[in-house]
Amino acid sequence: MRKLFATTAVALTVFGAAAVPASADTVKIAFVDPLSGGAASVGQMGLNHLKFIADTVNAAGGVNGDMLEVTGYDNQVNAQTSLVQVQKAIDEGAKIIFQGNGSSVGIAIEEFVTKYNSRNPGAHILYMNYAAVDPAMTNEKCSYWHFAFDANVTIKMEAMTNFIKDQPEVKKVYLIDQDYSFGHAVADTAVSMLKEKRPDIEIVGNEFHPLVKITDFAPYVAKIKASGADTVITGNWGQDFALLIKAAGQAGLDVKWFTYYAGAAGGPTAIKQAGLDGKVFQVNEGIANLNYGPAMETTKAYTERYKDAPTMFPRVFNAMDMMVKAMEEAKSSDPADFAPKLEGMTFQSFSNGGEMFMRADDHQLFQPIIISAIGPVESGQVDEENTGWGWKSVGEIAAKDTIVPTTCDMKRPG
Amino acid sequence: MAEILFFSAVNGITYGMLLFLMASGLTVIFSMMGVLNLAHASFYMLGAFFGFEISRHLGFWPGLVLAPLIVAVIGMGVERYGLRTVHKHGHVAELLFTFGLTFVIQKLVEMVWGKLPVDYLVPPSLDFPAFTIFATEYPAFKLFGLLASIAIFLALMLVIKRTRIGLIVQAALTHPEMVGMLGHNVDRIFMLVFGVGVGLAAVAGVIAGPALVTQSNMAGLLGPILFVVVVVGGLGSLGGAFVASLLIGLVQTFAVAFNISLADVFGPVAADSGLALYLDDIWSVTVAQVAPVLPYLLLVLILIFRPRGLMGNRES
Amino acid sequence: MSDTSDTVVRPAGFPSGAAPGPLRRYGPWIVLALLLLVLPRVFSSGLSISTMCVMGTMIIFALSYNMLLGQSGLLSFGHAVFFGLGGFLTAQMMNMMAGGEGPLPLMVYPLVGGLAGLVFGVIFGAVATRRAGTAFAMITLGIGELVTSSALILRGFFGGETGITVDRTEIHQVFGLSFGPQVQVYYLIAGWCLVSVIAMYAITRTPFGRICNAVRDNPQRVNFVGYNTTVVRFIAFSLAGLFAGIAGGLASINFEIMNSAQMGAAESGSVILMAYIGGVGNFAGPIIGAIVVTYLHLMLSDLSDVWELYFGLLFISMVMYAPNGIAGVIMMQRPLIRRGQLLRVAPYYVLALIPGLVALAGLSMIIEMTHQLSISASEGLGMTMMGIAFNADALLPWLTAVVLLGGGGWLGVRAARLAREAYGAAMVRGRVQ
Amino acid sequence: MSNADQGGTAALELEGLEKSFGPTRIIRGVDLTIVRGERHAVIGPNGAGKSTLFHLISGHYRPTSGRIRLDGRDITGLSPEQINRRGLARSFQITNIFPQLSVWENVRCATLWAMGYRYNFWRDIDGLDDVRLRTEEILGQINLIERWDMPAGMLAYAEQRALEIGLALASDADILLLDEPMAGMSHAESQHMVELIRKVSENRTLLMIEHDMGVVFNLADRISVLVYGEIIASDTPERIKANADVQRAYLGTEVA
Predict the structure, then answer these.
(1) From the UniProt record, which GO molecular function terms apply (chain C) (predicted)?
(2) Which residues, 6+ apart, have CB-to-CB distance to C352 below 8 Å?
(3) A47, CA 20 to 30 Å: which among A143, B244, C93, C319?
(4) Chain C contact present for A107, CB below 8 A
(5) Which residues make up the CATH 3.40.50.300 domain(s) of chain D?
(6) C388–chain A Cβ distance below 8 A for any pair
(7) Is A213 an 8 Å CB contact of chain C?
């Protein structure tokens, strides 16, 4: 609503024939994610990150002398609305699209951008994907105009199973996932990778439940308990995770939890309620309490600007910093020029300075993966959702140990 | 297996009673006013959120009393200044009004509390396992929810059997066409019934909030199930609503317990054609996976074989 | 007995059986066709063409919904099912024929969607139309949930939550049309939109169309003039499915992606909003609604985080005070224009509008400030409205908002009453003259 | 019964008709034959079951037991529209029209089935000359031509009652059931209505419920008296007047 009324005039002239051309000295970046309705807070966080980084870059003289300009476009997490918003962004002169929430939206944008570039000669629209993790995006649907900065399902499972490999107490594993493509991807890769790395582990259950429809997970927890599992692997997120953990706490289920999204909003609160100290692990590209100097400084500056929003997306920093570097190397902010520089680029991870690289074959970033557990933290350390509990690293998997093959058949322009 | 059966049964009955707390109010409102309140689950959600907000400042127990009262007052306001205005435009307009209300209430809740689950805690006095059976604990709060639902159910029956308004409600349930002949204070009775009805939904919300989840989509998740309950039970039948509530509660929890698919029963699909790929989806789906779809399937089947619902006695 | 009618003088306008002149009959459609033809030349930006493509699709969808709600009095909460199934079938067919294998050009593919909509309309209609009224509404709600949930389970066909994607340029091409450029898709949609609108309008003017109106008004009486209302409802439901399917097919050609969200409850709700806000009592109502709602849907979200709330409030107030929607409000002015009284009433409208807008400003301040205090608190309490910066927790803005809302509302109600009286007086005056 | 000596064929036959709602028996075994071409009135005190009897004949209710025959064919248990298609049309005691449709549309809709257009959704209704002429004819009969484009809900009460009759006429039925056509009308309006009914029932069989005894004795060829769900007498007006049972049970109390 900061924009309310101020942008009324702009919106009313949307039907005006001429699009506003991008001025010569700004690089327009369109951020297409939910910015209205209940999911707005999640999208807003990403937008805050982008604006923060853009301001930092601009303060240091910009990219090749050009200023970065970030504009938000509300996609209401709807694939078709996203496409109209991307069209709007293109009309307004943006060539770089940032998006992350929802693989269905991500795939829609990836396809749209690819088709748009091939159907409109001279158009070079680039899709910077900071969070959509459907493996299809860098496999069968891979595109030259798409770069993925988050570790996808398979990569994270590779890291997770490499960690579990060395945990002898894990003997019976129960899989519970949401009944949609992401959940199935988690379950399928878990089964195949565990079988390969720890053939002695018994999979005692492989359960799928409807997506965001279950209000009481007690029956599922009863099943897990009956199976005798000592470990549960789940890709659940949001309320499906929170409710699962809540039900487990109520029934006194004592197992280890390996998760993808325990750190997402609502997760830490549920874990603390259930009292699962040190029992819940998450696998991602970075957490707050890694004590890595440069990251801590940036975090401090960021939290000074956005006071009550400490949640950090290291991958947004990685994506923006790598893009800026590619632009500088190419001395151009046209994606046609700097995309080749982004391919194969090596870079230092924002989280811990570890090495990461953008694989040219499928435009998937490989980066150090942190395995962390949540529990009470001492003062001075970052806690989550004011619970007094925070994430602590229990293992780091180097980028080179997370490499998975790709089926991508990259079609390059020209 | 025995423990799964046991816990499924207990969970199913708890869930069913919760459904009935809401379905009873919905049924009485429908019988009296002829309007199916599509926003009923939204008032359940309001109950949960008000209960949550009050519990943060005053504790759970004041919330259990105050939240339903606030919701009842809001409900009466909605009836007095909203529904009554729309009434002259007919039933479709009334339905659309309550439909619009679900939309607005959801957006209001999202505006104030966001889309993520809020941290609605079980009161400490009930935060212990009520009993442990088959090495699984059953939380005391859920047991409390079950007992509270039963107590309210009994109290409601008492009110309906013993009071004047109860008699009117009873008359309305059996002879809906007579409601128009109730005389000059029918407006006030409508307002009261609507208030009490949504107040009951709010009680369900306060009980379900900590036990399940308090989130802006809870109305959207429960609403359709609730309407299935009243249609399957038979529109306007309190007894039918009771049976259907328990039935759907049990069906949903028991379905989760079974991982049987058509493939398990008949063997995998043999053919290797493109069609078999699609068929395989249906073939390998387990009962547990389709659990949330079952109520709707039940709805369709009931309507084919018994269009008036289990215990309904009127067409529409 | 036919001589009785000859003795009575027929009043003006009484149906004479003479066919209307070609200009009257075809004129509006020719104008509409020309309009559709030149629109992309006037609004030529990529965004406006994309937006018009969505609008064209939604016009068909909203009109098909009005075959139920407005024409037959059937309130369905699951209409998007047919839109979605039509879209999925079209997309699957396109993928099957990709690479120019099939002989059919892209232009006829929406028909696949239409047929799918019709077939599923027949199947679900057989169940749903056994009942009317509230029970019908609940069954459609159930069918909607059933199909959407099943779509997530049957991943092979529906492609899970990401849906299935297609490439429209892969279809057999004729006349050198690749349908790569959006403007070609625009003309495809515009063509189908025109044909569908004409067809749906024509249906309202057939024996069946009129019986639908009768069923809406008084289903019981329809039984006693020889009609089976279940059959009437069933045909209406199936035909509505057909057109919704065409709209779905166009959507999947336009976006080249179809996912289960397009057939969910939100989409079914949005078509209700479109039809109702536009006006269900008038054939053109849903067209207006589709245009307005699509525009607001795409543009309003840039203005306010909580635009959907405004949307809901608009809908509720229309149900309460303007049950015939925008078209109804416009139609109310027609007798005034005919009687030359509009200009005498117009000042009263302005008089009512000004405090109304003031009250709206107050309401929107309260909404936006509440939002700033709750959800957006992480971004600080400072906010700007109409170029004025203030803090959401300060007393003055709240006071201002309450005064604006209360004062504007009070004056608005009064002025509205005056406007109503002026309208009534003008109608009487017009009749006397 | 003395129907045989009327000499006509039976248009409508009720045989042992019963209807109960729960434990309450509303119609307790009615036997009645309506002869083709006659004007037959059913009278009786309030609550005698007259309207229920009409609902049974027209298919609105399903009888608990007994048979109904239309032109010798059994129609028991058929739905209202099936009965209508076999040539029986009715009006309602409480005005039952299409309030939002114009008078013209009201009548036109009622003619469509009988004219054979059924569920036709491909022909322009305004182009159907036979429907137009038929509609116009009926509007002429019920004197509503002037009001043709007014929404039916906005008509004066007496006009709505006339339209109600018009709807029954429009389906071109041989047998008309009119349920209290004069209810709530002024004396002048009633006179009008009597003439209308007389006119439209030429060449038709008429069965009507009416409270106005003047109308009944003026219009009806035969009268049946329904008391507590039973026909206690069925005869010509003169003999009904003289019937001691009727005097005692009905006329003595209602008509002084």
Answers:
(1) branched-chain amino acid transmembrane transporter activity
(2) C412, C415, C416, C418, C419
(3) A143
(4) yes
(5) 1-87+175-256, 91-172
(6) no
(7) yes
Q: Structure tokens of A382?
A: 């970052």
Rounded Cα distance between A118 and A114, Å, is 6
Among B117, B136, B256, beta carbon nearest to A251? B136
C281 has pLDDT over 90 = no
**Cα–Cα dist B255/B214, whole Å:** 24
**Under a CB-based contact definition with an 8 Å cutoff, are residues A206 and A187 in contact?**
yes
How many other CB atoms are there within 10 angstroms of residue A20's CB atom?
13
Please check the confidence at residue A121 and state whether its pLDDT lies above 90. no
Size of interface C-D (CB pairs under 8 A): 133
The pLDDT tens digits of the residues spanning A304-316 come to 777 655 566 888 9
Q: What is the mean pLDDT of residues C407-427?
A: 85
Chain C contact present for A223, CB below 8 A: no
For residue C226, give the nearest of D85, D104, D108 by CB distance. Answer: D85
Chain centroid to CA C139: how far?
22
> CB distance from B264 to chain C under 8 Å?
no
Asked if pLDDT for residue A234 goes beyond 60, the answer is yes
Mean of pLDDT values over D13-17: 93
pLDDT in tens, A85-116: 998 899 888 999 999 888 888 999 999 999 99
Taking the model in full, what pTM does it have?
0.89
Mutate: best of B8, B45, B212, B287, partner A, most A CBs <10 A: B212
Mutate to test the interface with C, among D83, D95, D125, D142 (most CBs of C within 10 A): D125
**Interface test mutation site (partner C, options B53, B104, B308, max chain C beta carbons within 10 A):** B104
- Would you list the domain boundaries of chain A? 8-151+295-366, 154-284+371-401
Whole-number pLDDT of residue A16: 39
Identity of the residue in D80, D120, D133 whose CB atom sits nearest the CB atom of C224: D80
Q: How far is C350 from chain D (nearest CA, A)?
A: 31
Neighbours of chain B (3+ CB pairs under 8 A): A, C
Fold adopted by D91-172: Rossmann fold (3.40.50)
ipTM of the complex: 0.86
**Secondary structure (3-state) at C258:** strand
Q: Please report the pLDDT score of residue B244 as a whole number.
A: 92
What's the rounded mean pLDDT across residues D41-50?
Answer: 88
Q: Which overall architecture, per CATH, does domain A154-284+371-401 show?
A: 3-Layer(aba) Sandwich (3.40)
> What are the DSSP calls for A221-241, one per residue?
HHHHHHHT-SEEEE---HHHH
- Confidence band for B315, pLDDT divided at 50, 70 and 90: very low
Q: How many residues does chain D have?
A: 256
Interface of C with D (CB under 8 A): 1-2, 4-5, 8, 10-11, 13-15, 17, 19, 202-203, 205-211, 213-214, 216-218, 220-228, 231-232, 235, 239
Per-residue pLDDT, averaged over A352-360, amounts to: 90
Give the E-state strand segments of A230-353 in sequence order.
Answer: 231-234, 256-259, 280-284, 346-348
For residue D108, the chain C residues in CB contact (below 8 A) are 210
* CATH code of the domain occupying D1-87+175-256: 3.40.50.300
Q: Domains (ranges, CATH) in chain B?
A: 2-305 (1.10.3470)
List C-alpha distances in Å: B261 to A183, A322, B269, B283.
19, 48, 12, 7
Given an 8 Å threshold on Cβ–Cβ distance, is A252 in contact with B114? no
**What's the CATH code, domain A8-151+295-366?**
3.40.50.2300
| Residue B274 confidence (pLDDT) | 57
The pLDDT of residue B184 is: 53
Locus of tokens 């839109």 = C83
- CA dist B213 and A239 (Å) reads 8
Q: How confident is the model at residue A229 (pLDDT cuts 50, 70, 90)?
A: very high
